[in-house]
Write a structure and sequence with these properties.
The chain is an alpha+beta fold. It has eleven helices and 20 strands.
């Protein structure tokens, strides 16, 4: 490892501040910022930015401005009163703008009684920090914010333009990042500390969310044949959707996803129906997600899902009386291939090599991130590089503590080499 005096001072600063970054992560985890309950974590981050003497402003999610944009994901909830947090340094200064982006929202931890400890009460064990959001991705948010602070703490001022974005709704729509970009908080290169470990994020798939509603006919269970069971009917659609999943994976795996046996996954994530155990259910609803290859448009996969359900309704006599109702909400996010030849990616790889003494591996993602917003909105180059996490979206989610330290140092080193610094 070879560092100049400035870099060594910054890395020393990272060490001195590391426990503060961990405590900040734990503060965010305690807020349990699930969808439409993000205010607590927003308050924590805003206070932390102010405490670090970083400028902060609230960037509203204006439905009227976003709804006409091609990247907007329609959602059934109100986000008119929601906002993201942005810290913008040196607007208009010479140099290329670096953006650090991370999301604050987390997914539900239910059922909480499956966890070893309460999911919103972080705990440390054997080098891991546990809690919902610890990995995905509040430790990454802490690392990127404290990377900026570490440079200032080491006695240097960042003179180049830099933007920190802490956004909401990454887990369901991407509308938070879109709102920031629409209101001018973009840049020339973006780094996102998603918890895929210290490797170069090289591609991500497209993701589509959908909802199906099936009607039945209610009846007393003394004669179930007099009714039409909506819950049983809706389950008949799953094999049809699985056949679409198989088709995508068997016939439509473009490079580099031809390296992965099944990159485009279907998930039936939610199902509900009926209203009484002794009544034949008259309604059932199912929500799901399907991945699709880079290069395929959102409108195309929507049509494919629609055709799949149409075929099911046509060929299964269970749907003779009424077809399933298909709706799309949330993600309709196209996939893309990262430009790993970009100078920013090369600089990140150089920082990785300087710290670890080896070249970083590349990672092909079978999910999506807010990186797509930057790619499709303004063709902004960027990648993800972050801590190592386990059980994200699962029980006992946790993040490797030493990997947070490495992420903090890598981001601080990257900023020092990307931006112009001045000794205070």
């Amino acid at each position: 490892m070879s560092f100049n005096q400035c870099e060594q001072a910054i890395l020393n600063s990272c060490e001195q501040l590391f426990e503060d970054a961990l405590s900040f992560t734990e503060d965010m985890v305690q807020q349990y910022g699930v969808l439409n309950h993000e205010q607590g974590v927003l308050d924590i981050v805003e206070r932390q930015l102010c405490a670090l003497k970083l400028p902060v402003e609230r960037v509203a999610m204006k439905h009227s401005d976003m709804c006409g944009h091609a990247l907007y994901a329609p959602v059934p909830w109100d986000h008119e009163n929601k906002y993201n947090l942005v810290s913008q340094l040196n607007k208009g200064a010479p140099g290329k703008t670096l953006v650090l982006n991370g999301h604050l929202d987390v997914v539900s931890s239910d059922p909480a009684d499956m966890w070893t400890q309460a999911p919103n009460q972080p705990w440390r064990k054997d080098g891991w920090l546990y809690g919902r959001g610890a990995g995905d991705m509040q430790s990454g948010v802490a690392a990127m914010i404290f990377a900026v602070h570490a440079i200032q703490h080491a006695g240097y001022t960042i003179k180049s333009p830099l933007i920190i974005q802490a956004v909401v709704e990454e887990e369901c729509s991407g509308n938070g990042a879109l709102a920031c970009l629409q209101q001018g908080f973009g840049g020339d290169f973006v780094l996102i500390p998603e918890p895929f470990g210290p490797q170069i994020y090289a591609a991500q798939v497209g993701v589509l969310w959908f909802k199906l509603l099936v009607r039945g006919r209610p009846a007393h269970v003394l004669d179930t044949s007099a009714g039409d069971n909506a819950i049983e009917k809706i389950q008949k659609l799953i094999p049809w959707l699985k056949s679409l999943e198989a088709e995508l994976n068997e016939l439509e795996r473009p490079a580099p996803y031809d390296q992965i046996a099944q990159p485009f996954n279907l998930n039936i994530g939610k199902i509900k129906g009926g209203n009484w155990a002794s009544s034949v259910p008259a309604h059932a609803e199912m929500e799901g997600r399907i991945g699709f290859p880079p290069g395929m448009s959102a409108s195309h996969i929507m049509q494919r899902v629609n055709d799949c359900i149409e075929q099911a309704a046509l060929k299964d006599k269970a749907f003779v009386s009424q077809k399933p109702i298909l709706r799309f909400h949330g993600f309709r996010s196209e996939g893309h291939i990262v430009d790993t030849g970009h100078a920013g990616v090369g600089l990140l790889a150089n920082c990785h090599h300087t710290l670890l003494g080896k070249e970083p591996e590349h990672y092909l993602s079978t999910c999506t991130t807010d990186l797509r917003a930057f790619h499709f909105y303004s063709r902004t180059a960027g990648t993800c590089y972050g801590p190592i996490a386990k059980n994200i979206h699962g029980v006992d989610e946790c993040v490797d503590i030493e990997s947070i330290r490495h992420t903090l140092k890598t981001y601080a080193l990257f900023i020092s080499r990307w931006c112009q610094l001045e000794k205070k």
